[in-house]
Amino acid sequence: MRRLAFGVMLGIAAPAAAQDQAALDQLAADLGYRFTIVDNQPKSCPGGGGCFLSEIAVTVPAALSAETDQLEIRFGYVSRILSVDSDVFDSRLINGDLNALTLKPGKRLEAGRTYRVRIIGSGHFFSRNFVMPNAYLVAPGLAPRVIAATRTGIDAETGLETLPFVSPMRDPALATGNSADRTRWLTPERAFERYATRGPATTPDIVILPKPLSVQRPAGATTDLTRGMRVTLQGFGRAQLAPALAAVAGEVAQGGVPVRIVKGRGRPPEGYRLHVGDGAVRIEASDAAGANHALRSLAQQARHEGGRLRPLTVQDAPRLGFRGLHVDVARNFHSKAEMLKLIEQMAAYKLNKLHLHLGDDEGWRLEVKALPELAEIGGFRCLDPSERTCLQPQLGADPARNAPVNGFFSQDDYLEILAAAKARQIEVIPSLDMPGHSRAAIRSMEVRYDRLRAAGRMAEAERFRLREPDDTTRYRSIQNYDDNTLNVCREQTYRFLGTVVDELAALHRRAGTPLTTYHIGADETAGAWSQSPSCQVMMAKTGLTPKQLGAHFIERVSKDLAAKRIRVAGWSDGMGHTATQRMPRAVQSNIWGGLFTGGVAEAHDQLNRGWRVVLSIPDIGYLDMPYAPDPEEPGYDWAAREVELFQIFAFMPDNLPANASLRTNILNQPVTLRDDKPRQAGRAVAGMQAQLWSETVRSDAQVDYMLFPRLLGFAERAWAPKPAWEPAYVAGTSFANGDGKVDLRAVEAGWREFAGRAAAALAELDRDGVDYRLAPPGARIVHGRLEANSELPGVPIEYRDGDGPWQPYAGPVAVRGPVSVRTRSPDRRRPGRTVLVENR
């Protein structure tokens, strides 16, 4: 047996450093590691409140023995650890979700043994995909190494990420956190009942998505766009329409169908009229956005009809002016190629605002020439405990410098993103979250400070230092950081923000698309500053209290931005703490309060302030929530156990309380929504924004999976005319699940029409290389016969009886069971996740 040695840490002779490193490397390669969710309803929880029991099993290889009290296993654990039960290991929090298992005094690891560490965490773990990968070993004087057993994998068939070290969750008792929770996993049998209840989709003649205001089909001959197009423009430049024209059929100099695009008056912003007939196409729009939208509608319908269109007249304009998509590239980075792909999909479905979340605790993703450390340090996570070359790993980040979760956009990258968005009439709204969620910036600027101080340039070092060394305030943010909040009482903070915004504005000017809105975040600010010398001086002068300092920051920054002719935007919790009279007139607030947890009153309050209110309500708009309550589905679920396509389609943005008629709360309980803070007459939301936060989204393929096809429903609801089943808002009206105030049958009829168009859109997504989620089929076995259905019509279903070959499902079929079922993309390129149907 070979003994694993770590120099002076062991009670044996110390080998050379290279041998020590080789021994650590070998242990990291061979160590067993297994994570299991044991119980979501423990009998008692430390400190009260909800908790869950998990277990980490560490298996020491038989050929190795470690004798050390300094070896650590560091691992991501996204809940707060409340207690640890182990004979051998203690646990300590490092920061954020990064924790360490350390050997207790006098304990050592023995070869071939398995050590079980029972951990109680706060909250609940309803999905095995919450577990963070890439745990690693740390030993003094040696380079840390990732434990190979904790790395992610990729399913060869589906292309989906796998977590091989996480135990399956098969016990239905794990689906709930307490006796009041009525949630049940969406089994194939329950999915079958759900899809059957909604009824078969309508076979569409018009597939335009989102749904236009009006469509007519006059009589006449077809127009053959397969010949190409001969385009003439009046009032528009070709560059303004180039991507949309390319999406239709390309152009030819002679012989193609005449396509005339005219700028006219009298239509609403982004509105258009599209007429196809008599062998020609005519588009009238009041602006370039409207002309683009008309071409996108033409492209969808032309492909559906094989390029030979029957006569068609479309009159259209958006219901909501702000139709946004928020993408978080800070928690985990996503590539420029993915952003460009998303921008094209946004244009295809008439979304017009891209909110790029570029900075947070876990990463800074934009090159700033004046402050290069922001990207050079804050853009990467690696195994450097000093954080002089990168940030420590968080959220299970792969520490390799070239890992997809690492990186940043160079200024050239950002200019390319801006150019692509401008060509598609999409506004880019950058966000670098402050004053909380700022750890990446604070640590990066500390590296800058140390570099300049070492060079004797103290004045320059202090100029952008974001840490006040004499501040002894102790706090923990919601994400468990104790050092992530900018000091709002120091001028360095405002100098830093001004420098960043000025560079951003300059980039937007270079791209020919001025920076008109900047999102400061302003959410989830921890209770910092009470012991800050700078803040004590400020509070003594102004009479402010620590709780008022966050609002002071937002008010000051908002005025600074207004002076630059930039609208301030922020999340509603922070914005709501400000005094309206101390804010500029132009303010955007993204409402992220929960539908059943105060979001309705919050939205109405901020509408009544006269602000531009954008609904980002997590129950419906956070597309990092799971599609379904299922232990195999990825996504956090703190706001909703499921955000499915039907729910998004059925959302009522103009009457928020009415959504309670169709929805249940996070415990799947009916709840009455009382309009306790009615909105004033004449106030209406400006728009909706879908959010993709990236804590658990580690690849571009996962971005596609979480966004699509849900983003189709979001685009429909933001653009399409108000449906007849959405009741008019009447101040003070209350709604409750199943009260009949919203006609469920009418909603389901609308869904069947939408589902037909959404199914047609899947072929478009296939063509564009979008790896959207293929919902597992509904399925049941009745009297030995398999019956299956799908969420969207026409999606191919496959089944496998026992270990037999996969076969196409065409209708009820005799099986012996159990049976595996899955869906496949319409282009047959890839299958979806497999689910098992029991033969009961």
Automatic annotation (TrEMBL):
Pfam families for the chain: CHB_HEX, CHB_HEX_C, Glyco_hydro_20, Glyco_hydro_20b
UniProt GO MF annotations: beta-N-acetylhexosaminidase activity; polysaccharide binding
UniProt-listed InterPro entries: Beta_hexosaminidase_sua/sub (IPR025705), CBM2/CBM3_carb-bd_dom_sf (IPR008965), CBM2_carb-bd_dom_sf (IPR012291), CHB/HEX_N_dom (IPR004866), CHB_C_dom (IPR004867), GH (IPR017853), Glyco_hydro_20_cat (IPR015883), Hex-like_dom2 (IPR029018)
One GO cellular component term: membrane
Keyword Cell membrane among UniProt keywords: no
Keywords, alphabetical: Glycosidase, Hydrolase, Signal
CDD domains in alphabetical order: E_set_Chitobiase_C (cd02847)
The protein's Enzyme Commission number: 3.2.1.52
Cleavable signal peptide: 1-18
List of catalytic residues: E524
Known catalytic reactions: Hydrolysis of terminal non-reducing N-acetyl-D-hexosamine residues in N-acetyl-beta-D-hexosaminides
Region of interest (Disordered), ranges: 820-840
Gene Ontology terms describing biological process: carbohydrate metabolic process; glycosaminoglycan metabolic process
Chitobiase/beta-hexosaminidases N-terminal domain location: 29-190
Similarity-based family: Belongs to the glycosyl hydrolase 20 family.
Protein name per the record: beta-N-acetylhexosaminidase
Organism whose genome encodes this protein: Sphingomonas xinjiangensis
